[in-house]
Amino acid sequence: MIGEMPSGLVYRGSTTGIRRFFYVASFLVFAAGVPLFLGSTQTGRYFAWTIKSPLTAAFLGANYWAAIVLEALAARQRVWARARVAFVPVLVFTLATLVVTLVHLDRFHLHGGAFVTRLSTWLWLAIYVAVPPAMILLGALQLRVAGVDPPRSHPFPPLFRCAVAAQALVLTGLGAALLIAPVSTASIWPWALTPLTGRAIGAWLFGMGLGAAQAAREADFQRARIAFVSFGVAVILQFVALARYGGELDWSSVSGVAYLAVLLGVLVLSSFGSIDGRSPAAFSRAPRAKIT
Question: What is the pTM assigned to this prediction?
């Protein structure tokens, strides 16, 4: 029982390095989202590579801006158990995107175009080369922090945990398929993709799927709340993207209906997870302890 826990309990805290990294990362994903979400038709000039489909650009931009929420909230968490739901998904996404970039490097604006175009491209490459090793080092330092995790003060109901696990399976499966075989998998996507954009979307879906898997593993609203808030923002921004460029989507197709169904399913789960995660009862049951 919580009341019987020994005094002097020390919770494992997030390191200063991890928290600072997430603050910096939140700025970087904001910057990446500007030309994609706001300048969806101008990527040939303002982004690292040209995306001919405005809906694809807006899709990617929506996810970058949703990541602002995830990383800014993770930076604010003093207890590691409430921030780590963001760590592995961000690390895997950046590694996957680096690989995608290197595989399709000939499509990037490394040498041609205006100065702002080349600058954005080289910054993109520098960031994705630097971030994974920095995260691995910070993660190794985080693992050395002493302490314990807080008990699950507000655990998932079994049905909700199963639903989140199913969401993780769908997103990681589709993401992996797009990363490995973008041409074949693009045939089930509701609008046209190229191998590069298919893999770029796949990196996001795979990372989000890992976030959902980590949330299911944590099985606690307080530990997973930041992921649910971020998922909800992502879905809302995807609906904005559809309102702007929905003409690219075949609304009557099976894939179009399935896409909308997945968006609505993620929105329902994220809404429940975000609201329940903020329940005052969860805070009132949490034991008091020091944080390392």
Answer: 0.91
Tally helices (H) and strands (E) across the chain.
11, 2
Distances (CA, A) of 276 to 86, 156, 208: 19, 9, 20
CB atoms within 10 A of CB 241: 24
Which residue's structure tokens are 């530990």?
Answer: 223
N- to C-terminal Cα separation, the chain? 23
Q: What is the pLDDT of residues 210-254, one digit of tens each?
A: 999 999 999 999 999 999 999 999 999 999 999 999 999 988 899
Position 4: which residue type?
E
The residue extents of the domains of the chain are 2-291
- Output the DSSP codes for 132-193: HHHHHHHHHHHHT---BPPP-SSBPPHHHHHHHHHHHHHHHHHHHHHHH-HHHHGGGSSS--
